[in-house]
Design brief:
alpha/beta, three-stranded antiparallel beta sheet
Amino acid sequence: MTTAGAAEPPYGAAAGQSVAAQPRYGAPAQPPNDTQPPNDSDAPPTGLRPVDDAEAASETLWGGGAPPVPESGELGPTGRPLRLVPDPPPVAVHGNALIVAMCNQKGGVGKTTSTINLGAALAEYGRRVLLVDLDPQGALSAGLGVAHHDLDNTVHNLLVGGRTSIDDVLMHTKVEGMDLLPSNIDLSAAEIQLVNEVGREQTLGRALEPVRDRYDYILIDCQPSLGLLTVNALACSDGVIIPMECEYFSLRGLALLNDTVEKVRDRLNPRLSLYGIVVTMFDARLLHSRQVMSRVVEVFGDVVYDTAIARTVRFPDASVAGEPITTWAPKSGGAEAYRAMAREVIHRSGR
């Protein structure tokens, strides 16, 4: 194994608002009349439909699989009261990793940023984490300080040929408890090389199985497409976390992604579920951001994480430093946002 550098940064967290100022569940308080958001009949279509009570009960992880937690007196960016998720207890025994695909076919929504910084935050809480770079652009590897263009062994070698041991590809990062399977442009050939393989959709799952007992979480950074590599990630994952930019076109893309997840669940991986949606690049000052957030919460309910990741000036600095925001600016809003998201992930998964 070799040692990598550190991480590409994310975005920060929006401040809460008083319960008295806004309704308990739903959209933020109505803006002045001259900036009133359009009603549903005026709003452009998104391809999404609101969940009914039965769907909400089956999909919601809060109050479903996870034990309830107390609520604070402040509304979060979702328009719901912030839930006071406690710091997770330490893990006595590691292994039987939960595999999570960080997936969105739209580029530039914060998948890589969220993978790096969620992984670093989970490691801070004592979880052992493996990050898998499944994007031929190698952004995850580059964000962790890896000179990925010069690597001889990458994820491509694990998927094609079958002669490379996963330990020959595995790298330690500067974050204690967090390892990396790097990638580079060689991975772009994998979809063509795998097309005639038997069981091609399970290739990644077979490659990860030997190390699953070493980690608590395996986070897969998917490429911005719904091709064979992404299907491989979904076919071996227990669940999907969707980073979604707080912007209208990202909202439209959720319908297509949700349809792909359902097809993979029906045909390849019955255990696959939607673990959550994390809204990135959120700006509470913008009416458009608040409208998009309101619509996502209306459609997906509690599947949307309470934590929203907002822009902050700390991230360009952390990117240059090659560290996760949790180590470069540990007291910043961005670091606290990803710690809050990590607490939600651990609480929902029970790990």
